[in-house]
Amino acid sequence: MCSHTVRALRLSFIFGIGLVVPVVLHAIGVPHIHIDELVANSDVIVIAEVAEVKLVGPATPVEFRGQTLEAAEYSSEILIYRYIKGSAGARLSVKYVLPRSFVGYSGLHTGTRMVFLRRAKGAYEPTDLYYADSPALRIGQSTSDSQGKSGDFTSSVIRELLSVISSPDASASEKSEILRIDYAFSPSREVVQAFRTGVTNTSDPNLRQRLQGELIALGDITELPQIVMLLTSKTVTPDQEVWLLYVVGNRITNSRAIDELRPLLRSRDDRLREAAAQALWNIKDIAALPDLNTALYDSDSKVRFYAVRALSDIAQEPGWGGPNEALFQERESEYLQHWRNWVSARAN
């Protein structure tokens, strides 16, 4: 079995276990993608069929972060379906070199892909070996629609990525591959709509819940009632529970979410109450006073801490600003008594 095949199998295993991927790639030090830079550095961007990636043979060792690594050369002939940027015929020959040990580079993947290429020595090579290609749909925007009158190739690339997310035909693994660069999407109407459509068009519970969390992260709370139901009924998938608790606790700022969070505050699960109380802290709205008052008497210390921080931000009282966790633990009874009195005075 060639080293490229071994590498592909290893990546397939890693990608198949979901949340391990970001941890592994972060440990290796894979940089975040910057789509505008990737587009600007590419001479050609195509939607193409990558039928096969061939191992050519040994290559000159490569320098990588102060190390000299053994390397191998690969080549592929790709059949062009559509051009996003540039033009170079119906087929392209692509060559590149990868270290034999995994350092985060991926090279090309077989299948229908959006491929980013630059000219090199009379041939083409991937613009960025960390992000050489991505899943794509064979049928999509025409060349003229994709490039647009302004030649806004970055927007065209983003639309191609979003079309995979929203497509009923793209596989869960293809959508999940794009979601690994979720940070690259801004919370625009186009992005939110694509993710909403993706929720509707998938039958995979794990992917659907991931997309529902992505919508919360984008500032859209339309899926919050469903997320709350999943968490409180314990029907959330194991892979997505931590993710959904994270987005609830850290990414909700809309006061319209206050009523929807109430079932989490009534849960017997400390983690759910903590996430809801943290969300109320981020919302910082006086409409949440009854819920925050309840949280001040919670049996869980973190819930009480988040309630104090939320009330501190709402009231902006000199001398009673939000403590850090260490100070709160040291003077918890003082903080709790002060804010219980504060809420009680406003209820009368």
Radius of gyration: 25 Å
- Helix count? 16
SSE string, helix = H, strand = E?
A: HHHEEEEEEEHHHHHHHHHHHHH
Cα shape: elongated
Sheet of most strands: 7 strands, antiparallel
- What proportion strand? 15-25%
Fraction of residues in helix:
40-55%
Which runs of at least 5 residues are low in confidence (pLDDT < 50)?
1-21, 142-150
Give the overall pLDDT as a whole number.
90
Distance between the termini: 76 Å
How many structural domains in the coordinates?
2
State the total count of DSSP E strands: 7
Structural class: alpha+beta
Tell me briefly what this model is.
This protein has helices at residues 3-16, 20-28, 35-40, 143-147, 153-166, 172-179, 189-200, 205-217, 224-232, 238-251, 258-265, 270-283, 289-296, 301-315, 325-330, 332-347, and strands spanning 44-50, 54-64, 67-85, 91-99, 111-120, 123-126, 133-135.
